[in-house]
Amino acid sequence: MNRVVLVLVICLAPSRLCAADVVVGPADGGGYVASTRQLIRPAGRTVEFGGRPVDIVLSPDGRTAYVMTNSGVVAIRTSDWTIIQQMGFDHASGSYHGMAMTRDGSKLYVSTSRTDILELLVGKDGTLSAGRKIAIAGPGEAALTPDEQIAQSTGRAAARPVVGGNPVPCGIALSPGERIAYVCLSRSNTLCALDLLSGKPIRQIPVGVAPYDVALSPDGMTAWVSNWGGRMPFDGERMEMSSGTPIVVDEESTAASGTVS
After folding, report:
1. Spatial distance between the Cα atoms of 174 and 184, rounded to a whole number of angstroms
2. Measured between alpha carbons, how far is 134 from 110 in angstroms, rounded to an integer?
3. 224/261 Cα distance (integer angstroms)
4. In sequence order, which residues have a C-beta less than 8 Å from that of residue 120 and are 6 or more positions away?
5. Are 246 and 231 in contact (CB under 8 A)?
6. 33-86 pLDDT, tens per residue?
7. Are 66 and 99 spatial neighbours (Cβ–Cβ below 8 Å)?
8. Which H helix or E strand runs over 3?
9. What is the DSSP string of 49-102?
């Protein structure tokens, strides 16, 4: 009996010491203790809400900040740092990253964790309402001309995703004319050109592993894509499979490569 009690004390003591040593949440003297046991003291004002923030977009007039979380979008009035709306996602969660707003501030595009891009409508007071749900399926075989009109079929098969299943859209960039949305597809390892008028993909361009975000040149003719998983591994390199795609890893099985396409 005594032997059993001794074993329990040995097993439980470290947990009590850790809990007493660091408590996640507000810290004495200001700031917050993160789950990584790091102390964070923001330089500016803060606002608290439920969920994990992964992206932020400021309205063109600067009056509203939209924060994407793992469960929805939080609208914050910047004049007094007040939350004016918390809009949840139906039947899906937020992706790792990915929001873009039109120049007139009337529409907000948001990536979900499966196949869809949500088109949210922005009211005059900055609040959001549901618009279209645009599914990213197989790409077509059309090309783009500089004036963003869809040209005739190229006659070549468009690039297909390397990995099947949910493509998991991430970063979004709108073309200069705002007809095309360029969307990073994390699991597919591609950049998708999405026609916002028809709601259909035009084509997919192979990039690196797990594309995360995209930026366009002012003329819309060049895109730069950051790849979370880096490049594809060479023969003989240390690698692991990540959601169906091989990635270069270090001795601790952490992604060891980061690239821009």
Report:
1. 12
2. 10
3. 6
4. 73, 87, 107, 108, 109, 110, 128, 129, 130, 131
5. no
6. 888 889 988 888 888 888 889 999 999 999 999 999 999 999 999 999 999 999
7. yes
8. helix 2-21
9. -SS---EEEE-TTSSEEEEE-SSEEEEEETTTTEEEEEEEPSSS-EEEEEEEE-
Question: From CA 75, how far away is CA 65, in angstroms rounded?
Answer: 6
In whole angstroms, what is the distance from residue 46 CA to residue 25 CA? 14
pLDDT tens, residue by residue, 91-139: 778 899 999 999 999 999 999 988 899 999 999 999 999 999 999 864 4
Cβ proximity of 84 and 77 under 8 Å: yes
For residue 195, the tally of other CB atoms under 10 A from its CB is: 18
Longest dimension (CA), the chain: 82
**Predicted model pTM:** 0.79
Q: Burial level of 168, CB count in 10 A (0-12/13-18/19+)?
A: buried
Is residue 255 scored above 90 in pLDDT?
Answer: no
Nearest 10 degrees: CA dihedral of 199, 210, 91, 132?
A: -20
Cα–Cα distance, 240 to 53 (Å, whole number): 28
For residues 111 and 183, the answer to whether their CB atoms sit within 8 Å is yes
**Phi, psi torsion values for 196, nearest 5 degrees:** -75, -20
